[in-house]
Amino acid sequence: MEYTIRPISNFSLGLADIWAYRELFYYFVWRDVKVRYKQTIFGVLWAILQPFMMMLTFTLVRRGLNIPSGDLPYPIFAYSGLMFWNIFSSGLTNAANSLITNSRIVKKIYFPRLIIPTSSVLVAVFDFFMAFIVFFLLLLYYQPYINPFRVIFLYPLALLITIVSTSGMGYFLASWNVKYRDFKYAVPFLVQMLLFVSPIIYSSSVFKGELAQYAFAVNPVAGAVNLARACFSDAPIEWHLIGVSIISTIIVFVVGVYVFRKNESYFADIV
Amino acid sequence: MKPILEIHDIHKKFKIGAERRRYPTLRESLINSLKFKKDQHNFMWALKGISFDVQQGDVVGIVGKNGSGKSTLLKVLSRITPPTKGYAISRGRMASLLEVGTGFHPELTGRENVFFNGALLGLSRQEIQQKYDEIVTFSGIEKFLETPVKHYSSGMQVRLAFAVAAHLEPDILVIDEVLAVGDAEFKKKCMAKMHDVTQSGRTILFVSHDMGAVLDLCNKGILLQQGAMVMQGSIQETVNQYIYMRDSISSDLAERTDRQGNGTLRFTEIRLFDPQGNESDVIQTGQSLTIRLKYQTHTTLNGLTFNIIFHDHSNECIFECSSNMSSGVLNDIAPSGEIVCHIPKFPLLSGSYQISIQCRAGKHIADWVWDVAKIEVLAGDFFGNQQIVQREQQSIGKQHVGQMAMSPILVDHQWQF
Fold it and tell me: Which residues of chain B does A8 touch, with a Cβ-Cβ cutoff of 8 Å?
């Protein structure tokens, strides 16, 4: 095993290095999941309680408003959106702060730094699977129509879009947060704003006009949530809009990885 | 055979001054980038062209004063921070231990931390599982493994952390000053373990201020001074040179460049006086010591506190005299002047000690210089009862004269019977 230590020159992904340290993904997620629910009464139940309470709130609020949810019962409609939204919101917030919360490790031990924000997102994915238990119960209770083909192929795709876009944005914010703590204040604000432009409590069909729909689809979460909901109907999927979401996911990821890798080597000096 | 580690002309540049003390805000950076003339940053070369080869099986002690670049060199070699210039080639799996217990999470139990810390240091899950029992036995805290680490004493944390680190089996092991902590007995155990590691033909780079440990463990030495390598040779020669250098530098404080802080105030002179008012760096236990510090400043400073720190040869802080604890903070001082600290009864037992001085202005460190003076303490009468108090270990084999103390420091007290 021979390697050279030299000044930063060319851009590289460092995939071989990440592969060599792959076990650390598991350990970081394991530690964060363990630590998060220590000294709590409900423990891991919190991962379920949060989206569940949100769903109840939205269901109640909806009685006053007139929000169409298509053929789906509204609780299922809201919950399916919220599960994906939670990956995005908590994954992004944690990833953005991850290098700072782990600054002691970053300053003293070498390993590919991309592992840190990625693990933060994976912790949110762990919560997703916890929350899925309640979703499963909701499905049993309401017995909506399920398109099995779409569940097998489109549901994982929706999850993939969410993870990849959250990670990409997380890399970007994490590396800037190391340098400028302004981002610590900007991130919760950004997440809140994005909730309003994502089809979580409403359906994206409320937008009329082709341009508005395209603009809306730039948001990767919109694409992911629409795909997930499509699993419960036979209505044709608007692939041109999903395509826009996928393209923006790829752009966000590539930019995020690039910015992160560009700045990575100096994290230990300034964090 | 090719050397296991080749280091070629490594340079490392750091930003220093006020910029380094706090985080830049986005607004400042934006404004700065719009300015026609950019704000000039102060740079400091922490490493100025270090080159050497390490052969497999060598145990290299890296010595030098604080700020000479030892830790930066280890950070560059462990890939934590990249060099600014130069390169190094490593031909083996490297593990570095720059701090004991990095990554220990207070909420996790001892057992959980062993796994997480081991993984961070580069052990695979399988390796940790295989060595787990051995690690636990070595740490000697079997009973507390299911207790969260936050309830551990610092000694227990060190034991557990070192136990994990001691069971790493890399080709090259990089160690920075980690043996400075822990009790004497455990230190001995650690040194024994390190000897085992060297016996098995592994390569070690070792940084320590404890010359005893360095001499005991290493066979080769490298001496750094202000970021440059001034010597490379056998460990005995290197340590001799280091001790000679360390004892002869305290002369010109104003010229020292290996200082920390934002530089708004600078110490320029330190002088020590015995009870008779003669300048002297030799005093007796229980005598008074007066320390006069001269400084210069070019701005008005408020909330000033001064701190004089005494430490022993292994750099462990023994006690400090802090102006804000005893005499309050100082505002609005003259651009240059002298401040005086008086210690009525010097509490340290015979031996030689190093002095570091520090000045803070509010929350910022203005100036901080290590090892500005050395003080030689002779056994003396501390309690005013005509009894000479001595360090116990120094009298072994000799005739017992006066009182024996086990601790390095005495505290004024009375007993009632």
Answer: 82
Sheet strands side by side (includes B336-343):
B265-273, B289-297, B336-343
Interchain pair A35, B102: CB under 8 A: no
Specify the DSSP element, H or E, that contains B39.
none
Residue B150 CA to residue B145 CA, distance in Å, equals 12
Extents of the domains making up chain B? 5-247, 255-405
Query: Is CATH 3.30.750.24 the right assignment for the domain spanning B255-405?
Result: no
For residue B306, the tally of other CB atoms under 10 A from its CB is 24
Q: How far apart are CA B61 and CA A232, in angstroms?
A: 67
A108/B contact by beta carbon, under 8 A: yes
A93 contact partners, CB below 8 Å, separation of at least 6 = A187, A188, A191
Residue B245 CB burial class (10 angstroms; 0-12, 13-18, ≥19): middle
Whether A232 contacts A72, CB under 8 Å: yes
As beta bridge partners, residue B330 has B304
Pairing mode of beta strands B172-176, B265-273:
unpaired
DSSP string, B98-158: SSTTTT--TTSBHHHHHHHHHHHTT--HHHHHHHHHHHHHHHT-GGGTTSBGGGS-HHHHH
| pLDDT tens-digit readout, A70-128 | 778 888 999 999 999 999 999 999 999 999 999 989 998 999 999 999 999 999 999 99
Residue type (1 letter), A154: L
A27 contacts B98? CB cut-off 8 A: no
Domain ranges of chain A: 15-270
ipTM: 0.86
Using a CB–CB cutoff of 8 Å, tell me whether B84 touches chain A: yes
Is A185 touching B (CB cutoff 8 A)? Answer: no
Cut 0.80: pTM above it: no
Q: pLDDT tens digits, residue range A222-263?
A: 999 999 999 998 888 889 999 999 999 999 999 999 999 988
Length in residues, chain A: 271
- Say if the Cβ atoms of A180 and B83 lie within 8 Å: no
Cβ–Cβ under 8 Å, residues B253 and B369: yes
Q: Classify B5-247 by CATH class.
A: alpha beta
Helix axes A220-230, A239-264, angle to 10 degrees: 140
CA atoms within 13 A on the CB side of B98: 22
Alpha-carbon span B146 to B157, nearest angstrom: 13
Nearest CA in chain B to A115: B120
Burial A210-231 (b: 16+ CB within 10 A, else e): eeebeebbbbbbbbbbbbbbbb
The DSSP result for B234-280, as a single string, is: EHHHHHHHHHHHHHT-TT-GGG----BS--SEEEEEEEEE-TTS-B-
CA–CA distance, A108 with A269 (Å, rounded to integer): 11
Band of the pLDDT at B163, cuts 50, 70, 90?
A: confident
